Amino acid sequence: MKTYALKKTWILLLLVILFLFWVGLKYGSVPLEKGTLFQILNPEISEYTRMIIFELRLPRMVMALIIGMMLSSSGVVVQAVFRNPLADPYLIGISASAVTGAVLAFLLGLPDFFYGVFAFATSVGTTFVIFRLSVRKGRVSVAMLLIIGIAVSSFMSAFTSFAMYWIGEDSFRISVWLMGYLGGATWKRVLILLGPLLAALAYFHYHRLDLDALTRGDEEAHSLGVNTGVIKKRLLVAASLISAFSVAFSGMIGFVGLIMPHTMRILVGTNHSRLIPLTALAGGAFLLFADILARTILAPVEIPIGVVTAFFGAPFFLYLAVTRRNGMFL
Amino acid sequence: MNVSVHVSNLEFSYGSRNVINKMNQRFNAGRITGVLGPNGCGKSTLIKNILGYLQASNGRVEFINDADALPLKTRRSRTVSLVPQRPGAMGSETVFDTVQMGRLPYVENRWAGYSSADRKKTEEVMRRLDLTDFQDRPVGDLSGGEQQKVMLARCLVQDTPVMLLDEATANLDMQHKVDIMLKIRERVQNSGTTVIAVMHDLNLAAQFCDSILFMKNGHSRYYGTPREVITSEAINEIYGIHLTVYIDNAGVPFVLPGRDLMIPCSEPERKILNVL
């Protein structure tokens, strides 16, 4: 007989995050002296060490946490709305259009900062276009949404590939984007991301009971008084927006939005009042872990974080899919 | 509160295909009405229209309060509930959470969520249906029959004067079929609920329903008590097959599908008659 271990999961996740912060602050391309971490508040510590900890490692780790939370919580919502464990925010064309935006900024010769801005603008724009096109008789048709999403993704990828050939050698800067990068983290960026994250989490939490009902299918949700057409659309737009934010600030990081919601659904069940915060924490922890590996394994060379998430994420996903069919609502 | 459902001049089409054609029918409170007919006759579409999930292109569905003969003002989800055909597709939600969903139409403040009264009501219904032992288990771990009982419990927790059953017992074994129908009878007797049940099993319908509605081509064809409606002629017209209708000791009609096409003889030699 199976029941869900909730308290343990909460405590475990918080401990893991604390532990990862400790590891992540301690290790990096520049080694810290033994015991330094416990003397951070000691005024005698060198300005250099202080900078490494407070201006480089800490903001980057907080950013990893936030991006992980964004991707995984939007994954939870998208999967619930589509009633498909393989759905994730990237599926409806968001990532592909974000990359196109970044490529466009590059072609226009704009400074690096604009990559993110353009990526955000194009992915939000495409999201709305895709939604417009997929409305049938006043409600969003999930099938249409997926078909249009795939078509748009293919078109955008074609544009990106063409541009990369055209640009030639310089295109490596776009490749970085395609594989995800957290190196640009600053406290300012962390603050900018914190707003959308908290707003989205609050919004998802507000609709937690509707999400529960939606996972039972449209007809049942309707019979329970959920205005399915409107709520699905709003939830998807909110999920798309935070994905767009995360793509704009850190490039494409795959698998987090796909496997974290799925794993947590198996571990703690589908009740969204617990699933949403727990998945956000787990996603944050996972990305934190992936980022620590990305910057330490081949230090001082950094591996793109998307490579790490895929390397661990894909086999883990496969393992779950094969061993725990119960949680797959296929 | 007794509420009857009035369907008047209802029309509905998927694209150019008319599924419901100028249907007029009244479903009375305190009765189980079994809706039967061949696949594609519009049974499920009718249910979806009553539920308000599909919007009719013409005509209307009204919920009339029998006490004052006026249309009901409460919102649809507090008026009518549904026991769907297939048990939940997802399976990782707990039994308790699933049953409690029936209180969703009564949650006024989404921030606050379910109240302690909602929780109490859920627990009470679960006790009545012997589901308490399952409450923390994922729905997907239960058998089909148990899952359908969970759906029934959610419906009872929703506590509406009208209940819709969309082939709710179609995939269940005998024991669970009977169990669920008995629970529904009990509810109808205690609360005067209006039950509209789409069914395929003529014998089950004859036994448990107060009225039978045979649908054909998207409208009502025969309506009455099981004894009045379930006749060889009606079955021949609706389903296009010849069947003898038997009457049991209690006066309930029953049929043996296929019986009339077989030579009555001992087991190993049973052959198919050449009458088709």
Overall, the morphology of chain B is: globular
Largest sheet of chain B: 6 strands, mixed
Distance between the termini of chain B: 51 Å
Instruction: Name the helicity range of chain B.
Output: 25-40%
Lateral strand order in the biggest sheet of chain B: 6-7-8-3-9-10
**Strand percentage of chain B, roughly?**
25-35%
Instruction: Outline the low-pLDDT stretches of chain A.
Output: none
Quaternary organisation of the protein chains = heterodimer
Rounded radius of gyration of chain A (Å)? 20 Å
Percent helix of chain A: over 70%
Q: What's a quick, concise take on this entry?
A:
The complex is a heterodimer of chains A (330) and B (276). Chain A has helices spanning 6-26, 47-82, 94-107, 113-133, 142-167, 172-179, 187-206, 208-214, 218-223, 228-250, 256-268, 272-296, 305-323, and strands at 135-136, 139-140. With 330 residues, chain A is mainly alpha-helical.
What are the main properties of this structure?
heterodimer, A: 330 residues, mainly alpha, two-stranded antiparallel ribbon, 2 strands, globular, B: 276 residues, alpha/beta, four-stranded antiparallel sheet, 8 helices, 12 strands
